[in-house]
Amino acid sequence: MDNFTKGLHLAARYLASRMYTSREIYDRLRRKGYDEETSEQIVGRLIEEKLLDDARYAEFYVADGVNLGQKGEYRIRQELLRKGVAPVLIDRAFENADVDFDAALRDYVEQRLRVTEITDYKDLMRFKAALARRGYSPSEIRRVLDEYDFDFADKQ
To answer: The pTM is what?
Structure first.
């Protein structure tokens, strides 16, 4: 069995367990010792055979990120860029996504407020920072948190 075929079988084994982006497969093949040209040929073949599809991957990733991971748009965007998905495909995935970021943020805030006690302004700022790290914009955070009554005597 030649090097190309071995690499193709290896990539197929990776794809049997979960979806990957083209760059993730390419990087895995390179780490396993396949040269640049062979890795590119394998990825090209997988794309031709429709076993790799970054656009579809991005659409699923957006939906899962919002519905399961309760992540905001910014964080999902950054994660997809790190995985090698082209910005145009990411934009298209967000346009086609049937997700409600505000509802996901509200659900997450409800969950966190059940276990997180916010007793002063500093706690509220920490909570907002945690939401920002999840990828929500300041305006989204403000819009959702304005629905709650946080009344502190020491607003500094």
So the answer is: 0.87
